[in-house]
Amino acid sequence: MTDSSPNDSARPALPGLKRYLTGFALALVLTLIPFGLVATGALPPTETLLVIAGAAVVQILVHLRFFLHLGVTTTPRETLLAIAFASVLIFIMIGGSLWIMFDLHQRMFA
Prior knowledge:
By secondary structure, this protein is an all-alpha fold. The chain has helices at 17-40, 45-67, 77-108. The chain folds into two domains: 16-69; 75-110.
C-alpha cells in the first residue's frame, strides 16, 4: 500500500498541465480565427492575409512560450541567439522565395 495524504487528490496530475492547456487553447483560437475569416470571406483578401500573418506570428510566440518554455528573461543568451538566427534564416528564405515568384510572375505577363 502506498502512503498518500488526503490532499493528494487536490493536486493536479501534472504540474504543467494548466500551462499546456492554456497554450493549447490559445493555439486553437489563433488557428480558428484565420480559418473562419477565409471560410466566411468576412474581410477583403488583403486584410485577411494580414490577419493570417499576424495570427501566425502570435502563434509562434505562443508555441515558444507555452510548449518550448522559452522566455526572454529565463532563457540563456545562446538559446535566444539561436532562435534569432533561425528566424533571420527563415525570413530570408521566405522573403527570397516570394521575391523570385513575384519577379517571375511579372516577367511572364510583361
